[in-house]
Amino acid sequence: MLRQIWIVSVLNFKSLSSRFWQSMVIVVGLAATVGVMLSMLSVSAGMRQAYLNAGDPNRAIVVSKGIEQEGQSAITRAMAPMIASAPGIAKDKDGKPLADRNLNMGVPVLRKDGSKGFTTMRGLADKGQGVRPELKIVQGRMFQSGKREMIVGVGAQMMFQHMEIGEKVILPDGEWPIVGVFATGDLLEGQLVGDTETLITSLHKTNYNTVLVRLASPDSLDTFKKALTTNPTLSVDVIRHSDWYARIASQSTFALALLGYTVGTVMAIGALFGCLNTMYSAVSTRGREIATLRALGYGAFPVAVSVILEAVLLSMAGALIGAGIAWSLYDGKQDLFGNSVFHLSVSPAQIQLGVIWAIAVALLGGLFPSIRAARRPVVEALRAT
Amino acid sequence: MKYLPLIWTGVMRKPMRTILTLLSVTVAFTLFGLMIGLNATFDLVAERARADRIFTGPRFGGLAGNGMPIAIARQIAAMPGVKVVTAVNFVPGYVQDPKNPVFLVMLDDNAEKVVHDWPIAPEVWAAIRKDRTGIVMSKMQAARWNKKVGDSFTMISQAVKRADGKNSWTFKLVAIGDDIAEQTNGYVFGNYDYIDKAKPLADQGRVNEIDLLANDPATATELAQRIDRTFANSATPLRTITDKMARSGKDFEGLNIKAITHGIALAGMFMVLFLTGNGIAESVRERFAEFATLKTIGFSDRAVTALVVLEAALPCVLGAALGVVIAALLARQLPGLMPPGFGLPFPTISPVVMLWAAVCALVVAAISAALPILRLNRMDIASALSGRA
C-alpha cells in the first residue's frame, strides 16, 4: 500500500511541470493567505512578546486591591516601607530589600510619522536597577536621583521625535533633559524613565502607583504575599510580575490577533476554492493516467492519497513562501500600537501555524477531487479524451 | 448582444471551474470591500472632522489622571474667538465583571451645540435633558447590554465614586440613537450635572475633557495653541488639538491603516489574478480549435478578443459585485464581533468603494485575458483546426 502511494505520488510530481501554472494557483493562493495572516499577526505577536518579556517570575508587583492597571493603583508613602520590610524579598549587598517604588504617567509624544500619541513616563526609585537588572544604559548615563532628568528607551528613541540625548521633554513642572538611552529587551524600551521621588513632586501627587520587588527566590512569593495580605493596614494585591504581564498581554493583543485570524480565515476560504479548482482540474487532465494505473492494479486509496498529498505539498510550498515574505518584511522591525512600542515578530511558532493552516486548506481542497479521482470508472476514464 | 449565448457556453463549459472561480473571486472581493470600506470610513471621518472644533484635556496622566477643574472651561469660554464651550466627564467602569468594560460620557447642555453636525437625532438629546439619571445608548451599545428604552443600567466604576463612597451607579436608558462613524465603539451619553453632584464633594467640579467651537475655522489652530500657552504654567497644563488634526485619517493607534488595508486588498487580488488567469488560459487552450473555427467563418481578431475578455470579465465582475454586497452586509455586523473597546470603525461601502471594486475586477479580467488573446491573435488557423497547435 505505502509503496503504491509512493509510486503514484512520484508520478504525480513528475508531471507537475506540465501543470505548472495550474499548480501555481495553489502556491500563490496560500502564499497570499499565509503572508497576509502572518504579517498581521506580527503586530499582536510582537506586542505580546514585549509584554511577556517585561514580566519576570522572580519579581512581584504590589498594587491596590482589585485594580487592573498600574495607573489606577495607589500606594501611599506610609505603605511603601511596610511593603519593603515584608519577608520574601531579595536583599542587595548592603542587606537592603530590593523593593522599588514606581510611578507611571502618560506623556504626549510626537511619533516619527508625525501623528500624536502617548507614551509612559515611569518613575524608578533607588532600587530600580537592582529590581530590574535587565535595564542597561547603552548611551549617555543613568539619571541621578533628585534631579529633573530622564533616560529614554531605544524603542522610544526610534519611534518618537525629539528623543536624542540633550533634547528636552516637557513635563508638568517644566522641561526635563534626556541624559541617557537604555535597553531592556521588553516593553520598557518604548518608555521614558526618571526618578520616582522627583517625578512625584513634579506631578503634585501624594501616592506611588506600585511597588515592584525582587523575590528572594521564585518560591518566596507565597511568603511575601501572605505577609502583605494578612496585614490589616494594607489593602493590596500581590501578583507575580510574569502573571501580571501575561494578563495584560492577552487583554491588549486579543483584538489585534482576532483581526489577523479573521482576515486569514477569509483569505483561506478564497484560497480553498482556488485549491479545489486546481485539484479538480488536475484529476481531470490526469484522468487517463490515473485510469491506466488503476487498470494496472493500483488501488483507489493510493490514488486518492496521492492527490491529497500533491495539494498538501503545493500548499506548504505556498505557505513557506508567504511566511518567508512576511518574515523578511516584518520580523524584528520596530513598531508601535497605541502607546506600546515593540518589535514585530514572525516567529517559528507562527510560521508553523501558517503551515498548519495551509495543510488544513489543502486537506479540504484535495479531499473531494481525490474522491472523484478514485471513484471514476476505469473504462470511462480510459476512453475519455 | 447576439454573442451572449456564445460567451455563456464558454463560461459554462466547465460549470465546476466557473463556480469555484466565482466563489473565490467573491471571497476576495468581500475582503476587498471590507478593507477599502474601512479606508472609506477613515476618509469620511477625516472629511467630516471640523476645523473649528477643538478638544482639550489634561496634558499629563491621560485617563488615569483625575481631570481638571471646571473653572478652566469658564476661563476658555471667556477667551476671544471662542463660540461655545462644553465640559465632558468620563465614567469608565464595567458591568458585573471587569471583563465587560463600559465607558460613559457625561455631557452638559452645550454638548449638542458643539457636536451639532453629528447625526444624532434631536429627540435623543432632548431625552437625556429631561431625566437627570437618564442615559442614551447607540444601537450597538444597547444591543451589547441587551437593553431597551426604560430599562435600568447598573455599572461599577473604580475611578468615579458616589458621595456615599460606593462605586456602583444605576442609570435609566431613556433613548437609543443611531451609531455614528465618529464614535467607533458606539456611545453611552449621560448628564454631566447629575454625575458631578452625585460625587463626593472633594471630587466635584472636575472634568476630563473640554470641547469647544471657534468663531472662525481659519484661526482655530491658533486658538488651540493659545489655550495651551495660557495654561502651560498652571497646575493643569493642557493639550489642545483641533478635530481636524485629531482625525487625520492616516492612522489607527499608530498603525498605518492605508498601507495595511491596501496590502491586504492587493494580496487578495493577486490570489484571484492567478486563479482567473489560469482559468481563462485553460479554457482557451481547450477550445483552441473552436476559436480557429470562429476565425474561419469570419470573426475578426477584435471580435475574438472581445469574446475572451468578456468571458474572463464575467466571473470577475459578478464576483466583485457579490463580494461587495456581502461586504456591505457584513460591515454593520463586524463591530459587534470585535471585542468591545477596540475602536476599529465599521467599513463604509461608499460609491467610491464600489467604483474601485469594479476597476479592480476589470483590471484582473484584462490581465487574465491578455496572454490567451495574444496566443489567439497569433494563431495559425490551419494548424489550429487540425489540432496541431
Tally of strands of chain A: 14
Counting H and I runs of at least 4 residues, what is the number of helices of chain B? Answer: 15
Work out the number of β strands of chain B: 13
Largest interface: A-B, 56 and 52 residues
- In the residues of chain B, how many domains can be counted? 2
SSE succession of chain B: HHEEHEEHHEHEEEHEEHEHEEHHHHHH
- Helix content bin of chain A: 40-55%
- Structural class determined from secondary elements of chain A: alpha+beta
Name the strands of the widest sheet of chain B in spatial order: 6-7-5-8-4-3-10-1-11
Strand content of chain B: 15-25%
Oligomer: heterodimer
Number of helices of chain A: 12
Gross morphology of chain B is: elongated
| Main sheet attributes: strand count, strand direction, barrel closure of chain B | 9 strands, mixed
Low-confidence parts of chain B: none
Radius of gyration of chain A: 29 Å
Helix/strand structural class of chain B? alpha+beta
Which strand-content bin applies to the residues of chain A? 15-25%
Major β-sheet profile of chain A:
10 strands, mixed
Distance between the termini of chain A: 29 Å
Low-pLDDT windows of residues of chain A: none
Describe this structure in words.
The complex is a heterodimer of chains A (385) and B (389). By secondary structure, chain A is α+β, with helices and mostly antiparallel strands. Chain A has 2 domains: 185 residues, no CATH class; 169 residues, no CATH class. In chain A, the strands form 3 sheets. In chain A, strands 1, 3, 4, 5, 6, 7, 8, 9, 11 and 12 form a 10-stranded mixed sheet that branches. In chain B, strands 6-7-5-8-4-3-10-1-11 form a 9-stranded mixed sheet. A two-stranded antiparallel sheet of chain B has the order 2-9. Chain B has 15 helices and 13 strands. The model of chain B has no long low-confidence stretch (mean pLDDT 88). At the A-B interface, α2, β3, β4, α8 and β13 of A face α2, β13 and α10 of B.
